[in-house]
Design brief:
The complex is a heterodimer of chains A (303) and B (226). Chain A is of the alpha+beta class and 303 residues long. Chain A is built from 10 helices and 4 strands. By secondary structure, chain B is of the alpha/beta class. Chain B folds into 2 domains: 149 residues, Rossmann fold (3-Layer(aba) Sandwich); 66 residues, no CATH class. Classes of the chains: A alpha+beta (303), B alpha/beta (226).
Chain lengths: 303, 226
């Protein structure tokens, strides 16, 4: 076991030395990998920032239940209490017809016109805030249920745009996953191609080692390590690029936050996420070099 | 140690390199295979090293029928045989030491442990002082000795060499052949393909002469030469 580890350590060191010996060529490949990894990683951060902004709009999930006009105020109060006890409801606020009229009179400037009315045309209204655990599906269900109550007239949701915004974010997030996967394939191809060239350049060496008894696995090993190194260094550089981008963005983000007086913040890549980017890079490197090695190594036999 | 039974090797295109060849080499023997170029010497060695497979017939090496060695087992099979080549087939991106250690590393030995066997091997071919040199900076004779050290470092029972003195002048050739002779004296079976008949006669070993893929009858029976 220790021997096995030592052998791998030796092989990986050898592969690393090979990379360093051609610094320019290696750097180009690593840079391509880094950019390809950094694009989805940073887009992901942008989406998350947008999410954090929109999370401040949670009260926008409130909706209004207008009660039928023949419901008396005490009944409306009881109904409000009843609904407030539901598990999927966080709170219910009753706005009585009189309060609503008073508010309308104060805000609309139609005071004189309203005085002409013989009776209050406004119904009692319940403003319902769904519980925090609600999903958009369960909120729709709640709205339907309350709308079906005999006391209810109409349910009005003025927050559809929030849902639309969330739906768009959802699409963007999925697009990042799809685009990211395509970029992952691109990385596999890039690394595979690099390793293929490397194999061709070292064809003679491979032939000789096979001639004196090396197995495919033995000959393959250094190339797999090269792939892992490309992925690792590319991943590290990608993380660096993302952090650098955040650093460049920081002043304008804080200015925006100042203007909005809100919690607009671009959260940085967490340690786990940074490790994930690097890990993905290494895995893609291994896969790419594995493909190249499996395809080309077999064909090289001593002549 | 080596037995060919009715071996034919025909290449794509119809050229028959070996035709129903039978021969045997005993354990501990040192035998030369001679003949013009194209007589089938190299093919014979390549069949032993499993670089080629016979079209028909059996090649038996150290009790193993090579026909039964599966593709995946070829590396392990080759590790039992020491091979020396006319063009040395050294790796010029690493020093002499690493070249000689390669068969041991391939076999899974640690670098330090390998070192304990590389130095004696280099000593036997007289190159201990040059272990850190790049083989490209050595003379042709020295490079060939590196090749021999690599072939014997894992202590194979069988050593095969294809024209090991093909690129060397007579003095160096004799020196290289003497090295082979020394290994033979400690029990290694040696099979060498060569066309240098004058040199072979100096060593006084058995000679198998091939002609167009068959054994040339005159040499099999030395009396005819007298």
């Amino acid at each position: 076991m220790i021997n096995w580890l030592l052998r791998h350590a030796g092989t990986s060191a050898g592969s690393f030395v090979r990379l360093v010996r051609q610094p320019f060529a290696s750097l180009m490949i690593i840079l391509v990998i880094a950019v390809t990894l950094a694009i989805p990683a940073s887009l992901n951060l942008v989406v998350r920032a947008a999410q954090s902004v929109s999370s401040g709009w949670e009260n926008a999930l409130d909706f209004s239940v207008y009660l039928r006009r023949d419901i008396a105020e005490p009944d409306a109060g009881k109904l409000a209490q009843l609904i407030g006890q539901r598990a999927d409801v966080a709170s219910v606020r009753l706005i009585t017809a009189n309060e609503a009229l008073a508010e309308f009179r104060a805000q609309s400037g139609f005071g004189a016109a309203l005085d002409q009315l013989s009776e209050n045309p406004l119904p009692h209204t319940l403003v319902v805030r769904p519980s925090a655990a609600s999903t958009s599906a369960s909120i729709i269900l709640l709205q339907e249920e309350l709308g079906n109550l005999p006391e209810a007239d109409i349910v009005q949701v003025d927050t559809e745009w929030v849902q639309r915004f969330h739906a768009i974010l959802d699409i963007v997030r999925r697009a990042i996953v799809i685009g990211g996967s395509l970029l992952g394939v691109a990385i596999i191809v890039i690394i595979g191609n690099t390793i293929r060239l490397d194999i061709q350049n070292r064809r003679e060496e491979i032939e000789v080692t096979k001639l004196i008894g090396a197995s495919n696995a033995f000959v393959r090993r250094p190339f797999l390590w090269s792939g892992i190194w490309y992925g690792l260094l590319g991943g590290l550089m990608a993380v660096g690029l993302v952090y650098y981008g955040l650093y460049l963005l920081a002043p304008s983000v804080s200015r925006l936050a100042g203007l909005y007086q809100s919690g607009v913040s671009v959260t940085s890549l967490s340690l786990n996420e940074a490790l994930a980017v690097i890990g993905i890079g290494m895995a893609l490197g291994l896969i790419g070099s594995w493909f190249a090695a499996a395809r080309h190594m077999r064909r090289i036999e001593p002549r | 140690m080596i037995r060919f039974e009715d071996v034919t090797k025909r290449f794509a295109g119809g050229h028959e390199a070996l035709s129903r060849l039978s021969l045997s080499v005993d354990k501990g023997e040192m035998v030369f295979v001679t003949g013009h170029s194209g007589a089938g010497k190299s093919t014979l060695l390549r069949l032993i090293a499993l670089i080629e497979r016979p079209t028909s017939g059996q090649v038996i090496v150290d009790g193993q029928n090579t026909r039964r060695v599966k593709r995946r087992k070829i590396p392990a099979y080759r590790r039992q045989i020491g091979m020396v080549f006319q063009d040395h087939k050294l790796l010029y991106d690493r020093p002499v030491f690493d070249n000689v250690a390669l068969p041991l590393i391939i076999a899974g030995m640690g670098y330090r442990e390998a070192g304990r066997r590389v130095r004696p091997a280099l000593e036997q071919v007289g190159l201990l002082q040059k272990e850190k040199r790049n083989p490209a900076t050595l003379s042709a004779g020295e490079q060939q000795r590196v090749g021999i050290a690599r072939a014997i470092v894992s202590r194979p029972k069988l050593l095969i060499a294809d024209e090991p003195t093909g690129n060397l002048d007579p003095d160096l050739s004799l020196e290289v052949m003497r090295i082979f002779r020394r290994f033979n004296e400690v029990g290694v079976t040696v099979l060498i393909a060569s066309h240098d008949i004058a040199l072979i006669d100096k060593l006084g070993c058995r000679r198998i002469e091939l002609d167009a893929g068959r054994i040339a009858p005159a040499v099999e029976d030395p009396e005819l030469w007298e």
